[in-house]
Amino acid sequence: MFARVPALAIAAAIALGGAIAAPAQAQQKLVINSYGGAYEQIHRRLVIDPFARKHNVEVQVITAYSADALAQVRAQKAAPQFDVIHFSGGQEVVAAREGLIAPIRLDELENGKDMHPFAVAGLSRGEGPVHAVAAVGLLYNKARAPKAPSSWNDLWDPAFKDHILLTDLSNSYGLLGFLMINKVKGGDIRNPAKGFDAVKGLLGSSVVVATSPEIQQNFAQNDAWIAPYAQDYAFTLRKAGLPIEFVQPKEGAAGVFLTVNLVANRPNQALAKKFIDFSLSPEVQAGWAQELRYSPTNKATRLDAALSREVIYGEQAVAGLVRFDPVEVADARAGLVETWKKLIAR
Amino acid sequence: MRDRLEDLALAGPGVAVLAVAFLLPLFEMLRLSVLGDDGGATARHFVRFLTDGYYLGVAWRTVHLSLLITALCVLVGFPLAYVMSRASPALRLWLIVLLILPLMTSVVVRTFGWMVVLGRGGLIPWTLWKLGLVGRNFSLMHTEAAIVVGMVQVLLPFTTLSILGVLMKIDRGLEEAARTMGASFLATLRAVVLPLAMPGILAGSILAFTLSVSSFITPSLLGGVRLPVLAASIYDAATRTLEWNFAAAQSVILLVGVLVVLVPYARLTGRRRG
């Protein structure tokens, strides 16, 4: 029994030594969220790893979709665990209102002067800048769909019956797809009855999914032909070998504004602001366009002619996107999701 | 006196962990469920759940699917456990490994496996199509049947091993005595083995029921967004619509429901043992 004591003592000493030594050598650490899958891989390659190397810091990535990320920062309000938080569904409006994210001044960002006005319009409300734009339109299977869709109303075309894919409203892109359907059918955010009636008619001949990988699975194995979803995801599916094309319907495509925000009450805000600034730099934005067809928000980003045709390039093109007021959407979201849940339940 | 102190000292850390990690969150959840917007107490969240057809439908679906899953687990588990108890020790070991093998993979990987097998063009719909029973586009995914299949696979080991434990302790001589008295095999099972195995069956079915009523990942992935169960609804309220009070109210309702089922079960097993 006593022979074991020295061994235990040594083990304890090593553990203690390790615990004391570690903080002394610790790098500064930044905790951020990313959206998983192909997005997170590219995010690491374009932004996270270069930033970590350049500033010699450790960046910890937590995979969480925007809604989950907002739920987490809200739960952690007293002691936040994130430094930088990314949102893709307008959650920054709610986060700013609840004091979960801290305001940034335009002059604190080196790239601030080069940003398109729409990208920094939210700064005055305490939100973070927009680092990428995506468009929500129609995705279709070029090889199997009987024709290329050109309008949101094509979803009700009998040619596509039983091969339609709808996305749940809990997903940011799904919500925007629904709001476009609602708009095309004559409703607006405060009166979505027409949109819900229209979707009700589609339910019998469509599949409802909640996440991007399920969309890929349905196109690949379940013979889906048409889906309202985002332009960047069409590119991801093409890279995966599926013949999917993106169409901007004639009534317009909805704009998705991905923001990067500074979480409030954290110690390393200066470093976090540098990270946010880095996300807005022209090289990074060109990389996003090249890899995943996200549209840049920095005027100084240079894209070659072919690439610029595949994204929404330039202030005018972005102005052509249908933008739903993020404040209105944030207020209406709970009600819309509730009605949707009851509509799709079997 | 020394004994009491020793007992307290030994139990102390365990009780402390239980209090902090279990009781504290539980009370916090109870508090949230009756919290109104003004900080006072309100039954608004419970009323919202209990008066809405949609939420009652979700609760009903959760309960009736769990009952079905439990019944299937027992129906499959009892014969399986009987065979395992009468097999040689080596064979029994292999059967146990075979039974627990699905539990050793990640729940998400296992569920994705079911998505491939049950989806359009998957093995089961394809076989049914070739047999002429269904159309070409038939899919078992996103149906209540898929939820039941996935959950039974996960919960069968719990039920079977509970019953196996009890069956192993039954004296072989009792069965032999019944057989020599002229009872058939099935009559022996019904009159001798089943009553003696009842504690194991009850324990296994409580386990299966409570696990399936609170399960979330498998029903969400296999049932899809159009067939929500209570745990999925709680997750939705907590993370998607950020209605924490309502999520807490639903959690309390789930907890009460499980306790309501446990009490008669506890009474049943108590009486039998005693």
Topology of helices and strands:
The complex is a heterodimer of chains A (346) and B (274).
Chain A: H1 4-25, E1 29-34, H2 37-55, E2 58-63, H3 66-75, E3 84-87, H4 91-97, E4 101-102, H5 117-120, E5 130-141, E6 164-167, H6 172-184, H7 193-203, E7 206-209, H8 212-220, E8 226-230, H9 231-239, E9 244-247, E10 254-263, H10 269-279, H11 282-292, H12 305-309, H13 315-319, H14 326-344
Parallel strand pairs in A: 1-2, 6-7
Antiparallel strand pairs in A: 3-10, 4-10, 5-8, 5-9, 5-10
Helix pairs in contact in A: 2-11, 6-7
Chain B: H1 2-33, H2 44-50, H3 53-86, H4 89-100, H5 107-118, H6 123-130, H7 144-169, H8 172-180, H9 185-213, H10 217-223, H11 230-240, H12 244-273
Helix pairs in contact in B: 1-12, 2-12, 3-7, 3-9, 5-10, 7-9, 7-10, 8-9, 9-12, 11-12
What does this structure look like?
- The complex is a heterodimer of chains A (346) and B (274).
- By secondary structure, chain A is of the alpha+beta class.
- Chain A folds into two domains: 26-133 and 255-323, D-Maltodextrin-Binding Protein, domain 2, CATH 3.40.190.10; 135-252 and 328-344, Periplasmic binding protein-like II (D-Maltodextrin-Binding Protein, domain 2, 3-Layer(aba) Sandwich), CATH 3.40.190.
- Chain A is built from 14 helices and ten strands.
- Chain A has helices at residues 4-25, 37-55, 66-75, 91-97, 117-120, 172-184, 193-203, 212-220, 231-239, 269-279, 282-292, 305-309, 315-319, 326-344, and strands spanning 29-34, 58-63, 84-87, 101-102, 130-141, 164-167, 206-209, 226-230, 244-247, 254-263.
- In chain A, the strands form three sheets. In chain A, strands 3, 4, 5, 8, 9 and 10 form a six-stranded antiparallel sheet that branches. In chain A, strands 1-2 form a two-stranded parallel ribbon. In chain A, strands 6-7 form a two-stranded parallel ribbon.
- In chain A, β1 (29-34), α2 (37-55) and β2 (58-63) form a beta-alpha-beta unit.
- The longest helix of chain A is centred in the first third of the chain and has 22 residues, at 4-25.
- The N and C termini of chain A lie far apart (65 Å).
- The model of chain A has no long low-confidence stretch (mean pLDDT 88).
- Chain B is mostly helical and 274 residues long.
- Chain B has a single domain (52-273), classed as MetI-like fold.
- Helix content of chain B is 79%, strand content 0%.
- Chain B is built from twelve helices and no strands.
- In chain B, α11 runs antiparallel to α12 (244-273).
- Chain B starts with a helix and ends with a helix.
- The A-B interface holds A 67-68, 70-71, 74, 94, 162, 168, 170, 207-210, 217, 221-223, 333-334, 337-338, 341-342, 344-346 and B 54, 57-58, 115-116, 119-121, 137, 139, 142, 224-228, 236, 238-243.
